[in-house]
Amino acid sequence: MLRRRRIMVIGAAALLAFAAFAPSTPHADIRILAHDSADRAPQRLEAAVDTGVFAVSLLVTWSRHLAR
């Protein structure tokens, strides 16, 4: 019985520490910008996944004519 209580206390402390040190909005932001700055309408691809535990967003931008 004492061992079970000790495991529960350690688990609760670990959960509390995780909640205290977890960022408020966990996310990974990946950007790949390879477009010409003079291009007024670059092609874009955006994607996002949010599972509730973590979020990942991806932005890829490119130009049709990089060599002018």
Give an account of the 3D structure.
The protein is α+β, with helices and mostly antiparallel strands. Helices cover 29% and strands 34% of the residues. It has one helix and three strands; from the N terminus they run H-E-E-E. It has a three-stranded mixed sheet with strand order 1-3-2, with no helix packed on it. The longest helix has 20 residues, at 2-21. The radius of gyration is 22 Å and the shape is rod-shaped. The termini are far apart.
- Note the total helix count: 1
Span between termini: 76 Å
Q: Per the principal axes of the C-alpha atoms, what is the gross shape?
A: rod-shaped
Rg over CA atoms:
22 Å
The neighbouring-strand order within the major sheet is 1-3-2
Number of strands: 3
**Regions with pLDDT < 50 over 5+ consecutive residues?**
none
Beta-strand portion reads 25-35%
User: What structural category characterises the helix and strand content?
Assistant: alpha+beta
Mean pLDDT metric = 78
Largest sheet: 3 strands, mixed
Q: In short, what is this structure?
A:
Helices cover 29% and strands 34% of the residues. By secondary structure, it is of the alpha+beta class.
Could you list some keywords that capture this structure?
68 residues, alpha+beta, 1 helix, 3-stranded mixed β-sheet, 29% helix
Write the layout of secondary structure elements.
Blueprint: H1 2-21, E1 28-34, E2 43-50, E3 55-62
